């Protein structure tokens, strides 16, 4: 496994930055190891919903998980508001960094990930291949 560490600065879009990083480093089987930080705007898609919801307030980034490859990223996020109320869902474009996002990414040398339409679910789902 190879590891990468990055810090996103204020105003950066979390998802777009991770997509850009994935392409810049040509990650074929990446995954989030850990992430902490803060957001000033969160855009999430909740379970079994087709539309996103936007929340404009300060949040702590308490968890981020998912897979990264050149054919797509699939990321889930958990955030907490000023009262500690936590919510989570699919990370969407439009999550803006408030002060920082410190992220450590792992990349497998044994696998290649590809996202392709699954006939059963109708969604782009992960396909895993030997590298």
Automatic annotation (TrEMBL):
Residues 1-129 form the PPC domain. Gene3D superfamilies: Hypothetical protein, similar to alpha- acetolactate decarboxylase, domain 2. Pfam families: PCC. It comes from the Bacteria. InterPro entries: PPC_dom. This is PPC domain-containing protein.
């Amino acid at each position: 496994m190879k590891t990468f560490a990055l810090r996103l600065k204020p105003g950066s879009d979390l998802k777009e930055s991770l997509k850009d990083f994935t392409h810049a480093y040509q990650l074929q089987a990446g995954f989030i190891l850990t992430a902490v930080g803060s957001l000033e705007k969160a855009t999430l898609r909740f379970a079994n919903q087709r539309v996103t919801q936007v929340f404009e307030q300060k949040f702590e980034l308490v968890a981020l998980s998912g897979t990264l490859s050149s054919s797509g990223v699939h990321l889930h996020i958990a955030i907490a508001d000023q009262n500690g109320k936590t919510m989570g869902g699919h990370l969407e474009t439009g999550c803006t960094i408030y002060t920082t996002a410190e992220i450590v990414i792992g990349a497998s040398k044994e696998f290649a990930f590809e996202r392709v339409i699954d006939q059963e679910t109708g969604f782009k789902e992960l396909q895993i291949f030997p590298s």
